[in-house]
Design brief:
heterotrimer; A: 222 residues; Porin; 10-stranded antiparallel barrel; 11 strands; C: 145 residues; mainly beta; 5-stranded antiparallel β-sheet; 3-stranded mixed β-sheet; 2 helices; 9% helix; globular
Chain lengths: 222, 340, 145
């Protein structure tokens, strides 16, 4: 990304920050934040943030979210790696679509890139679309997460021909969805843990082993 | 570092527990010892890149992401012995391989080191490079001859399709003479192969092309590996040719490895056909059991299970099964029959 | 601001090329010379003359089929990868009995030959192949390059 484009990004961002809309009405009762609900639901309430650290098989990762003052959106950043070999660095936005006292449903769109090393190496710009369904506003929060991950693979052939050098590009999209089921437990205000099972599908249609993980979740007021 | 973390995590997840191995299999009410004559080991970086990708893509994901550590955990002697223990196999033979275009290189020296890890249970089959034979035949033969004198080396392993050498290539008289003179049987891969860059033409895969050599060297023992199986189309391939050669020549032995795996023969029908054909031709006294493991965790045990089921399905008696699973190995390689 | 830093941190990853490979499109003029009086379809393979490194370095790695109606001049255009391989060598044999097999058991007269295309890498190369070795595979004709 060129310095000019960085300036453009900043220029686009700056007026938005200045024109902050009125706070989104919070449907939840006032009280201490529920970082486990926020993290597992994929989006925090206005004024809140959450960070989760994940460890398990095959995934390790970190994810952070912070509520933005527009349209109920959260900014999300995520770094996730399978066996420290297949790493996805993504950023984007999430939003709670449904938020009742019993159920939270959120959607999330992230973009970024992925790098896989080793014999099955690949790299390219990537995206991830996620639906999260969490139950609860209690101490124990079960949650289901469905993610659809895509990577754009661009292969370049540089060909010497009698007429001169030719560059050919072929593009393909690789899909690797992941489903997870978590149960989060609030330990104390601002701190929670969760444990879950993962059903990844690395290179469909091949078989993938299921996995498991634990999360440490912290969160609070900005 | 990553591998050290992953193994205990996998162990926890899979709930593995250490148990004392129980050797042998039950067949017809008897407990029979088992020797697996076809096992591979080696080093990941001596496999060509295209084959590493092929292998990694066949591991259950995400283990393919860490294919090197996944493979090396089971490809050394320790890993092979673990698989043998799990399967109840008392002894096994490790193959040296020189097929740099296809499945890679596992040197004689490496195999010799691995055999020494447990000389009571592991044997070795030596091999040699064939790709520059017109220039280095003498050196290759001398290296092989020296290897065959090392402890535990009982035979010679060749794979014409993987080594890109025609089965009727007339240049190897000295090799067949060495096999005959030393009494070391020659194991030959027959049939096609799924590995990238394999020479799949009939001259490299069909054992019919090898018949003139079988006939010309009656004192050399030849083991036709995989029974000429067509691994590409998952069909019996040159099974009939192999069985006919065994019926016609006393120096031909048969080894039904790999063809009956879950991947190559999902229903088990082809392995049953193979065992039935060998019984029908009256050549059970020259069938030598092998798996082609370790391939993936649990493969050695699973292949033995499928083979026992095929023998039962084909109506083998316990004595016939005993011959296939251990006695014929002792006979062809001139070693003591395996204990239970 | 967070959006700014997010985009900044992700920007190096976006636009990555998955793989970049070098190739040459070469037009090879092949002269197939058969023993006098023999004429039949010719089949074979184009090979990388060398491939691999260290213990995996090996001659003659086939990568493309070859076919011609008979002896004489044949022009072929090939797309040849250049990464990790060297040279271009043709192996061919004449199918005298029309069975599609080179010297099936019992057949002893189908001639074969091996020749290196030069110069390479280049966009134009020539190779002369004498089909004069009955029933030998490419490996048996390889003399060390």
């Amino acid at each position: 990304m060129s310095p000019l484009s960085l300036l453009l990004v900043f220029a686009v961002s700056a007026p938005a920050l200045a024109e902050r809309p009125p706070p989104n009405p919070d449907p939840r009762p006032m009280g201490p934040p529920d970082p486990h609900l926020d993290a597992l639901a994929g989006a925090s309430d206005l004024g809140d943030w959450a960070v989760s650290l994940e460890a398990g098989f095959p995934f390790f990762g970190a994810r952070g979210q912070v509520a933005l003052p527009w349209a109920g959106l959260n900014a999300v950043g995520s770094v996730n790696s399978a066996l420290f070999t297949d790493t996805w660095a993504l950023g984007g936005v999430s939003k709670r679509w449904v938020d009742t006292h019993r159920v939270v449903l959120s959607g999330e769109i992230l973009v970024g890139g992925t790098i896989r090393s080793g014999d099955l190496s690949r790299r390219g710009p990537a995206s991830q679309t996620t639906l999260r369904l969490a139950r609860g506003h209690g101490r124990v929060v079960p949650a289901l997460t469905l993610s659809s991950r895509h990577v754009l693979l661009t292969d370049v052939q540089e060909i010497q021909t009698a007429e001169g050098d030719v560059v050919q590009r072929s593009r393909s999209i690789a899909w690797s969805p992941v489903a997870s089921f978590d149960v989060g437990v609030g330990v104390c205000p601002g701190f929670a843990v969760s444990a879950g099972l993962d059903v990844p599908w690395f290179d469909p249609p091949g078989f993938s082993l299921p996995g498991a993980h634990i999360n440490l979740i912290v969160g609070g007021w900005k | 570092m990553v591998e050290r973390m992953i193994t205990p995590i996998l162990t926890l997840l899979l709930g593995c527990a250490e148990e004392a191995p129980v050797y042998g299999v039950s067949f017809g009410g008897e407990r029979l010892p088992v020797v697996d004559m076809h096992l591979h080991q080696g080093e990941w970086n001596l496999i060509p890149e295209s084959t590493r990708r092929f292998l990694a893509s066949r591991f259950p994901a995400p283990l393919g992401l860490i294919a090197e550590s996944t493979a090396e955990g089971s490809l050394n002697a320790e890993g092979v012995l673990e698989q043998l223990d799990e399967a109840g196999v008392i002894q096994g033979a490790l193959f040296a391989v020189y097929a740099p275009r296809t499945v890679g290189v596992a040197t004689n020296e490496y195999v010799a080191e691995q055999v020494l890890q447990d000389p009571e249970r592991l044997f070795g089959l030596g091999s040699l490079r064939l790709d520059d034979w017109n220039n280095d035949a003498e050196a290759q033969l001398a290296g092989l001859a020296a290897t065959l004198e090392k402890p535990g080396f009982i035979g010679i392993k060749l794979a014409h399709a993987h080594q890109h050498v025609r089965l009727d290539d007339p240049r190897f008289d000295a090799l067949w003479s060495l096999a005959a003179a030393t009494g070391k049987p020659v194991y030959l891969h027959t049939g096609s192969s799924p590995f990238p860059n394999t020479a799949q033409d009939a001259a490299y895969t069909d054992p019919a092309y090898f018949e003139p050599i079988i006939a010309a060297y009656p004192d050399a023992q030849f083991i036709l590996g995989h029974l000429g199986y067509d691994f590409i189309n998952k069909e019996v391939g040159a099974l009939d040719t192999c069985v006919e050669l065994a019926a016609r020549y006393e120096n031909v032995w048969l080894e039904p490895s790999a063809l009956g795996s879950a991947g190559s023969d999902p229903t088990g029908a082809n392995l049953l056909t193979a065992y039935s054909a060998m019984k029908g031709a009256g050549v059970i006294d020259r069938v030598v059991y092998g798996s082609d493991g370790p391939q993936s965790p649990g493969f050695v045990a699973e292949y033995l299970e499928r083979s026992v089921a095929a023998m039962e399905g084909a109506g083998y008696t316990a004595e016939e099964a005993r011959a296939v699973l251990s006695l014929n190995f002792a006979a062809v390689f001139g070693v003591e029959p395996a204990p239970l | 601001m967070s959006r700014f830093f997010l985009l900044l941190s992700l920007s190096p990853l976006v636009g990555c090329v998955n793989s970049r490979t070098q190739w040459v499109e070469v037009t090879v003029t092949t002269e197939l010379i058969a023993p006098e009086g023999l004429s039949a379809p010719v089949y074979g393979e184009w090979n990388h003359t060398w491939s691999g490194e260290g213990e995996l370095r090996v001659p003659l790695l086939p990568f493309e089929d070859f076919a011609a109606e008979g002896p004489g001049l044949v022009t072929t255009t090939l797309l040849v990868p250049l990464d990790g391989v060297e040279g271009l060598t043709l192996y061919a044999w004449m199918d005298l009995d029309g069975d599609g097999l080179h010297c099936a058991p019992g057949v002893t007269d189908e001639p074969a030959g091996l020749g290196e295309a030069l110069p390479f890498p280049a966009t134009e190369a020539d190779v002369t192949l004498s089909l004069d070795a009955p029933c030998l595979g490419a490996e048996a004709l390889w003399d060390g390059g």
